[in-house]
Specification:
With 455 residues, the chain is mostly beta strands. The chain is built from 4 helices and 40 strands. The protein has a domain of 239 residues. 11% of the residues lie in helices and 36% in strands. The strands form 4 sheets. It has a 24-stranded mixed sheet that branches. The longest helix has 24 residues. The protein starts with a helix and ends in a 19-residue tail after the last strand.
Length: 455
């Protein structure tokens, strides 16, 4: 601490005496427009059941009192239809059948166990409201418990269940165009189940679903080869949560208003592209958490108005490229021995603190001849190639002080703090013990960043 204070004092003296002119001449890339917050409005959903007549099941023109009774008489290729408000749980044991709701039919487990259990392969369930599972998380009480390969779940609404959908060690399950609303009255949140829980599942597809009010929106447990695309997840602990799950694809999902938007943990070979993490300010307040993640591609995501944009914990050999990191309290936190990351062509714009590192080891956040855009960096483009001739330290002494001593925020844009930053950027001898961008960009490499400033 004494050494750091001495360095700051020396820097201040040097700057005030020798480089004030350079500070005035340097071009500032900071945005002229400041916006206090950004917002995302999630879809409007309701867990209120429609008022329907008592239900029945039809198969080949015959009526049955329960789904299980109709299933016993079904053959592969048949379509079983549910009408009205049907009570009682059921198991589908006939392969290659379709179970379809007519006019928003309901199947209601009345608070007992699993509402609908799929025990055969190639079953399709569509256009159905599923509600009223038991409350036993250890028993995997779920709206739909999938224990058959290649199940197709389409157009479902699932409410008042412990887990929404549980995929139990089977392959090629699809959940698409469905809405899952958790038990918001259950506290703490960890006593709820997840919206979609994958356990040892392979090659599943989760597409265009809306999930809210559960523990985690989508939870992956030893599940590989899963494609997750176009989902909207809000008011959760974690929107997406990977654990021990490799070779997965995550694209164009939105996670908002949760403790953390995307929590990628203890996994490898993940591809995360074109997702939006916005307004995540709960207990964890991370937009994207990378914890014990290896050999993954994090590309083209928008990370906006979170506590921490990225939180990188013991993560190695990942490519973090062309992401927009905008309006967060801290753009990126590096901690717990995270090394060998490739940070390049990202746009860090109007974050209160661009970066903060607890790792006292140097790391260059740039590729050969090209780095990242930092809105508060002083840039001088001598060659008209869009790359500054002045390096930039986004996690310098001032940034460390602002994170560790919040009262220092009052002086964040003072001439004295600006002088210290300039000295750190201009004199490498003053310390390369943390993050440095040797080739900061003069303009954002992402075209649509300004849309977040529009009224």
């Amino acid at each position: 601490m004494i050494q750091r204070e001495a360095v700051v004092l020396v820097i201040g003296i040097i700057v005030l005496m020798t480089v004030v002119g350079l500070a005035l001449a340097g071009e500032s890339a900071s945005s002229d427009t400041q916006v206090e917050s950004y917002s995302f409005t999630p879809p409007t959903v309701s867990s209120e059941l429609p008022d329907l007549e008592p239900g029945y099941v039809s198969l080949h023109g015959e009526r049955y009192a329960s789904l299980s009774e109709a299933d016993e008489r079904a053959s592969p290729g048949d379509t079983i239809e549910i009408h009205g408000h049907l009570t009682g749980s059921a198991m589908i044991q006939t392969p290659n059948v379709t179970v379809r709701g007519v006019n928003t039919a309901i199947i209601d487990g009345e608070g007992m166990g699993r509402v609908l259990e799929i025990g055969a392969d190639d079953v399709t369930v569509s256009d159905l409201w599923v509600t009223g599972s038991g409350h036993d998380l250890g028993n995997e009480d779920a709206g739909v418990f999938v224990d058959g390969a290649r199940a197709q779940l389409n157009g479902l609404t699932i409410t008042d269940t412990a887990f929404g959908v549980w995929i139990n060690g089977v392959e090629e399950v699809t959940v698409e165009d469905s809405t899952i609303i958790g038990r918001t009255e259950v506290y703490p949140r960890t006593h709820r189940g997840n919206g979609i829980h994958l356990w040892q599942a392979t090659d599943a597809k989760l597409i265009n679903n809306e999930i809210t009010g559960a523990r985690d929106g989508i939870y992956y447990q030893w599940s590989n080869g899963v494609v997750t695309r176009d989902n909207t997840l809000w008011s959760l602990r974690y929107g997406v949560h990977y654990m021990y799950s490799d070779d997965n694809w995550l694209e164009n999902n939105t996670a908002t208003d949760s403790h953390a938007g995307f929590a990628l943990m203890v996994s490898s070979n993940l591809t995360m592209v074109d997702n939006l993490a916005i307004n995540n300010r709960g207990a964890s307040e991370h937009g994207i958490l990378l914890k014990d993640i290896q050999n993954s591609q994090i590309v083209g995501n928008h990370v906006v108005d979170n506590g921490n944009g990225f939180y990188v914990y013991n993560a190695h050999r990942n490519v973090i490229e062309r992401n927009l990191v905008l309006g967060n309290d801290v753009g990126v936190v590096r901690t717990a021995g995270s090394h060998e990351q490739t940070f390049v062509e990202n746009a860090f714009i109007d974050n209160a603190v661009p970066a903060y590192s607890t790792v006292n080891a140097p790391q260059a956040w740039n590729a050969s001849g090209i780095g990242n855009y930092w809105s508060d960096a002083r840039t001088i483009d001598l060659n008209n190639d869009g790359v500054s001739a002045i390096r930039y330290r986004p996690a310098g002494v001032i940034e460390e002080l602002r994170v560790e001593q919040p009262s220092a925020e009052l002086f964040a844009h003072s001439p004295a703090f600006d002088a210290v930053r300039l000295a750190e950027d201009s004199f490498p001898v003053l310390g390369d013990t943390t993050i440095v961008d040797h080739h900061p960009l003069t303009d954002p490499p992402i075209d649509d960043w300004s849309e977040y400033y529009e009224d």
